[in-house]
From TrEMBL:
InterPro entries, sorted: Archaeal_FAD_synthase (IPR050385), Cyt_trans-like (IPR004821), Rossmann-like_a/b/a_fold (IPR014729)
Species of the source: marine sediment metagenome
All copies of domain Cytidyltransferase-like, residue ranges: 14-102
Pfam families referenced in this protein's UniProt entry, alphabetically: CTP_transf_like (PF01467)
Xref: Gene3D superfamilies: HUPs
Keyword check for Transferase: yes
Protein name per the record: Cytidyltransferase-like domain-containing protein
Keyword list, A-Z: Nucleotidyltransferase, Transferase
One Gene Ontology term of the molecular function aspect: nucleotidyltransferase activity
Length: 139
């Protein structure tokens, strides 16, 4: 049986920190991205994602380090890992999930980057108006 690792993400706005984390996670095994739902992002981060869950999934599936993308709750438990046949959770050093240490791989975050930071910067300098996923549905 091959090792499967889960990287839980919201990917409100994909950036190089996400790619670096996925690349590092792939060294531990087959990468399954646990992608937060739109509702959970609204609940835990306080805003609607820019892209729907389906669009964020499509983007992640195009990354070579990712073998699968699955819907998960914002807080990951060992039951979530077991449900998806995953042995380990790979997370940045800001982990808040309820996973035992023997199933958790902590990696340092990429300094000075996060989706929330990019969105806040965008709002402050007003490069583009803030839009929600419903504003962007063009198909």
């Amino acid at each position: 049986m091959s090792i499967r690792v889960m990287v839980d993400m919201s990917v409100i706005l994909l950036h190089h920190g996400h790619i670096r984390l996925l690349r590092k996670a792939a060294k531990y095994g087959e990468v399954v991205v646990g992608l937060s739902t739109d509702k959970d992002i609204e609940k835990y981060k306080g805003h609607t994602p820019l892209l729907t869950w389906e669009f964020r999934k499509e983007i992640l599936e195009s990354i070579r380090y990712v073998s699968a993308v699955v819907e998960v709750p914002y807080i990951i438990t060992e039951a979530v890992l077991d449900e998806h046949g995953v042995q380990f959770l790979v997370h940045g050093d800001d982990n808040f999930n309820t996973i035992s240490e023997d199933r958790l791989i902590i990696l340092p975050r990429t300094p000075a980057i996060s989706s929330s930071m990019l969105l806040a910067y965008n709002r402050r300098i007003k490069i583009i108006p803030y839009a929600t996923a419903s504003d962007c549905n063009v198909y």
